[in-house]
Amino acid sequence: MSADQVDYLLRLGDDALVAAQRLGEWYAGTPEMEQDVALANIALDQLGMARLLLTYAGELEGKGRDEDALAFLRDDREFRNCLLVELPNGDFAMTMAKLLFLSAYQRLLYDASIGVADERLAAMCAKARKESAYHLDNGAQWTIRLGDGTDESHRRMQAAVDELWPYTHELFASDELCQRLDEAGLAVNPATLRDGWLSTVEPVLAEATLERPADGWAPEGGRRGVHTEHLSYLLAEMQVLHRAHPGAKW
Length: 250
Hints:
By secondary structure, the protein is mainly alpha-helical. It is 68% helix and 0% strand. It contains 10 helices and no strands. The N and C termini lie far apart (37 Å). 41% of the residues are buried.
């Protein structure tokens, strides 16, 4: 079962790590200074959760890999993040739609994970749920502000929602690993979170005067290490210093 736990922790940790890297790309580039600080703080929250999860995964794995090794010395096929987080930032509307979708999922996941039998994971999620509530509020408020704003901001926000919606289905895809851990009480089956996620996201879209896209094409593969080309470029930038100077200490 520990191998299953490691894979599951990598899924959660890689989601947070890659999301943090993407959000960090926005620093000093958002529409207002306050949002620069907000996105930087959200990125740091994601990075903090990633560190906890990857450290735990490394300990359970028992191969001597710490958080740095797992973050900087794995290739793209070894990452288990969902495709949604690795997609390029695009314009500000795209990033806010991504933040809304991801944070709504993470808030539900962390809430549900407080009751799992893995006490260490439960404690991490109890802390992260408070942070994810802030992330969700930020994404929701900007989605509403842009969607119900000018004709141009509405157009961009609708385009972002339409483009990203297919990638949200992977968040709730279940497999045998999730089912085994769920039955053992060690993790939450993501398939059980879809209805709650829709109940969170759909009212935001309605208030933002945005149309909820129809379900259809649903790209996936991230949980198996099959990623878009975008992850390779992201990792090349994120990992270059560590790989160039292995073992270096500040």
